[in-house]
Amino acid sequence: MNRHGYKGSITVFLSLTCILFLSLICAVVESARVQGARAQAANITGMGSFSLLGEFEKELLEKYDIFSLDGTYGNGSFQIEKVNERLQDYISYNANPRKDLFSAGCFDPWRLELDESSISGYALLTDEQGEPFYQQAVTYMKENTLTMTAEKLLEYAKDTEDIEKWEKEYKESLKDSDTQISQMEDTKQKKLETMESEAEAAGTVAVLPEEPKNNPLKEIAKLRKKSTLEIVTWDKEISKKTINIHNFPSKNRLRKGNLAIEKKNSGLLSDLIFREYLLEHFPGYADGSSGKVLDYQMEYILGGKKSDEKNLKYVVNRLLLLREGMNYLYCLKEPAIHQQTEALALTLTGIFGLPLLTEATNHALMLAWAYGESLVDVRILLDGGKVPIFKDVSTWSLSLENLGRITEVLREGAKRSDTGLSYTDYLRVLLNLGSVKKQRMRALDMIQAELQEEGSTQFKAENCIVAVKVGTSFYCKPVFAGLPSAIFRITAGDVRIKQKSSMAY
What are phi and psi of 475, to 5 degrees? Predict the structure, then answer.
């Protein structure tokens, strides 16, 4: 019997079986490798996005704690294609670890080759009136430097409605008072003429009312015609810095991104925290520090004017109106105020026998007293003192007697108080009374101007990228598909893998 033939037939069968099993194993391994390549492609896409946003503006981060990528890379011309070129460069090195290397022994199991990458969406720092800037600022304050409790922050906002109400009430009352006094002047003049005629007919001298040495109404009327800033600062030195505001983000139509960002921070508390960020990062009149472009940057955020002097003037006028409303409220509620103004009004007008004139004068005196007290309040704040929102007998500064010599009182300087809110605290109140959207855009104005002045001459807030949406396409070349393809006559080509990634600061 020839046993060699049987041995040969068994070897062929076993060989064919092994080849089939090897082909199956190779197919399974290739399938697993492709799945691993998909995961690797996702990782590479994410790393590319991360590396891209890693090129953030250093000066912006160091000074304002805000992350952003300059979409112009320093040349002032925004082109998203340039940003995509940087992205492709990062991804290509991650996809091919042998790129620019001479190591022939480097094994890459994934065999990925970048086909294309694109930035399909991006968000800019100025989108939605500075919403991305707002989100970063609030997050930074929550995670790093915010020291005030929520309850303390809310205290500065709780009286907002009362303040707005009494500001409006004061303005309307002042307007009505001026109208009443003006209307009564004709009646008063006719009464004087009648009194003089009657005295002349009787052969006597008409007894006319004797005005106080310093008539409060006349003194206040003179002051109302002057600049409030000059009245409350007198010989204080005011910054004369000015700036061209026409190219600022808040003054122009801006480039817009096409990617919506997540709005994790919103509502009253977030607004209050954002305003704390402003107070921490931008100098103001009371800080004693100065900026490159403007010294009173907090005042600019409130006023939006082109010079320090105009911005401080705006804030002083707002403080004055705020105090006028609250002081007028005290005048209306305090019996002692009524007694004094009624007595003086009667002295000034009683001889005319015109009750309406006396009543109008009484009201005008209360308004004038509230105005005089408010001038003193603002002077105290600018001198570094404190003033409470709601006054009482112990915190009321100006007597009716001194109201007639208010100019001298202000020139001498008001007595400082340690009770109430400081100038900075009142800035918080004014911020709460204003629009947070305007404030965040004006803050971006200052950021842009400061960084340009410090050397980043091409920096513009509207070119700052804060989030990107990336799409990539890779070819995965076969590694273990050769044997299955030969056995099963299956064509094994490159596998195309597409991935997407979104990333934001």
Answer: -105, 130
Q: How far does CA 2 lie from the centroid of its chain?
A: 98
Going by C-alpha positions, the residue among 134, 167, 429 that lies closest to residue 298 is 429
Instruction: Report the DSSP beta bridge partners of residue 69.
Output: 465
Asked whether the beta carbons of 164 and 327 are under 8 A apart, the reply is no
2, burial (CB in 10 Å: exposed 0-12, middle 13-18, buried 19+): exposed
pLDDT tens sequence across 328-346: 999 999 999 999 999 999 8
Contacts of 163 (CB under 8 A, 6+ apart): 322, 325, 326, 389, 429, 433
Whether the CB-CB separation of 461 and 249 falls below 8 Å is answered with: yes
The number of beta carbons lying within 10 Å of the beta carbon of residue 262 is 10
- Output the pLDDT for position 349: 81
Q: What is the pLDDT of residues 242-262, one digit of tens each?
A: 999 998 999 988 899 999 999
E-only strand ranges, 109-259? 112-124
- Residue type at position 120: S
Question: Do residues 467 and 505 touch, judged by C-beta distance below 8 A?
Answer: yes
Q: Are 407 and 260 in contact (CB under 8 A)?
A: no
**Cα dist from 298 to 38, 155, 243, 289, whole Å:** 51, 21, 15, 12
70 backbone dihedrals φ, ψ, rounded to 5°? -70, 110
- Report d(CA 125, CA 133) in Å as an integer: 6
Which pTM does this prediction carry?
0.86
Calpha distance 394→390 (Å, rounded): 11
Rounded CA separation 92/277 (Å): 40
Chain mean pLDDT for the chain:
88
Pairing type for strands 495-504 and 464-476 reads antiparallel
